[in-house]
Amino acid sequence: MSSDAALAWRVEAVCFNAFPSLKQAILQGWLLRFSNGVSRRSNSANPLGPKSALPEPVIEQIEALYRGQGQPTIFRVPSFLTGLNEQLAACGYRSEGETCVLYGAMDGVAAAPDASVNISPDPGTEWLAAMAVLQRHTEAQRDVYGRMVRAVAIPAAFAGLRIDGRLAALAYGAVSDGLLCYESVITDPTRRRQGLAWRVIAAIAAWAHDQGARGVCLQVEAANMPARALYERFGLTAELYRYRYWRQPEAAG
Predict the structure, then answer these.
(1) Which CATH architecture has domain 104-241?
(2) What parts of the chain have a pLDDT lower than 50?
(3) What CATH architecture applies to the domain 3-100+242-251?
(4) CB atoms < 10 A from the CB of 185, how many?
(5) Is 115 exposed, middle or buried (0-12, 13-18, 19+ CB in 10 A)?
(6) What 3-state DSSP class applies to 43?
(7) What is the structure's pLDDT at 1?
(8) Tens digits of per-residue pLDDT, 118-166?
């Protein structure tokens, strides 16, 4: 396995660890994740290695498990695996949600402690409430998201920056296998273009450096050019790979 491929699989693993699903199952080289519909990433079938394949019987078994959970089948396929996209398209699955996986060496990112950024190893009630508001979660989504982030088992930092007494920028990061993975980076829409997200992710990077992280990764929608530009300036200059989702035909739309 090449060094690039090995890094890609390490990033896949830390991203799973940083954003756990409520339920999961492993079947024929695929990790099936179930979280009551909160985010496609935590409700999709994911390959676990370079030999993950999708013969028709495996697709049928995976579909049966998602059907049993009352959810559509969604496959998440990284760009470094060939043939799977074409196979799913031939089965009538529809592509959506193309995402870039960005990476940078820890020494190249703008890590900086910030006394105004509060960092906690656990998501507190106020942090979760602010996240629910900024992400426009329903009560059901708020409950599921809270259960998911409380289930993070690797070292994590939940960060918030308060402006005029209110949390205006939030994110968290988690460290595994020498890599920091950012999750849920968000800013109050009325406070954008003030550098708040930069301060939050810089403070998390400083924390992660002390945890022994030597690389930094993040997943961002391919079409979100402002966010991608921000992360590139921050030091996440390499696009390691992309992935896209493939949604079960009868559940599309």
Answers:
(1) 3-Layer(aba) Sandwich (3.40)
(2) 252-253
(3) 3-Layer(aba) Sandwich (3.40)
(4) 20
(5) exposed
(6) helix
(7) 67
(8) 999 999 999 999 999 999 999 999 999 999 999 999 999 999 999 999 9
**Hey, how many other C-beta atoms are within 10 angstroms of the C-beta on 232?**
14
Which residue, among 87, 88, 56, 86, has the nearest Cα to 74 in the 3D structure? 88
- For the chain, where do the domains classified as CATH 3.40.630.30 start and end? 104-241
Which ranges of the chain does DSSP label H, i.e. alpha helix?
A: 3-18, 56-68, 84-90, 125-134, 139-150, 196-210, 225-234
The three-class DSSP label of residue 142 is helix
Per-residue model confidence (pLDDT) at position 252? 42
> Quick one: which of 106, 111, 104 has its CA closest to 237?
104
DSSP state of 234: H
